[in-house]
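Figure 3 (text version): structure tokens given as input.
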């Protein structure tokens, strides 16, 4: 199958890949769009993994106030160079992340930060719920594991589905940005404030 410029353009728009990478992926999959997307995602994830160990000490502080000024977010997003920190794509990512935090109110960055006593308490509640639903004891553990993943998705930023497109998780947005921009990117920290919330 001959690969047309239109096919390459569509794949680039969907993935953010370069012209050559998009063309090679389409050639390797004989023009199959979905398989080409998979190849490019794997390649991007591999690139992102290579960059993950590099220092990310530059970046920006993004501040976002929800309309009506009842919710505000301060986010530190880091990259490797000040050149990337001034890049529009990087700034847009920071804005989207701050907007997401305002809307979805995560409490932790990742599941590693959730205190063990909070996890233990949630596991006990989930076990009790599963048993109360009449689930057999031998599968309660698997049910709890599935539900604890949902728990992480509710409270951990990196595990949440993006507020504008819940099919993509925040951690995947970061990975995609790393592969597109070409530098390591990390969410260092964030704070969310809501008017009148208990202190």
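Below: residues designed for each position.
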């Amino acid at each position: 199958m001959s690969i047309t410029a239109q096919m390459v353009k569509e794949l680039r728009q969907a993935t953010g890949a370069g012209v050559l990478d998009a063309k090679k992926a389409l050639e390797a999959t004989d023009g199959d769009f979905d398989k080409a997307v998979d190849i490019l995602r794997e390649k991007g994830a591999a690139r992102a993994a290579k960059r993950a160990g590099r220092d990310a000490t530059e970046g920006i502080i993004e501040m976002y106030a929800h309309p009506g000024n009842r919710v505000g977010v301060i986010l530190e997003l880091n990259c490797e160079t000040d050149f990337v920190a001034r890049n529009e794509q990087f700034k847009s990512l920071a804005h989207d992340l701050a907007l997401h935090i305002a809307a979805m109110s995560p409490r932790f960055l990742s599941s590693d930060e959730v205190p063990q006593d909070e996890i233990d308490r949630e596991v006990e509640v989930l076990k009790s719920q599963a048993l109360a639903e009449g689930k057999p004891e031998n599968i309660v553990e698997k049910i709890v594991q599935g539900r604890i993943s949902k728990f992480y998705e509710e409270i951990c930023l990196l595990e949440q589905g993006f507020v504008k497109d819940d099919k993509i998780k925040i951690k995947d947005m970061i990975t995609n940005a790393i592969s597109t921009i070409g530098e390591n990117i990390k969410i260092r920290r964030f704070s969310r404030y809501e008017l009148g919330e208990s202190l």
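The longest helix spans residues 33-51.
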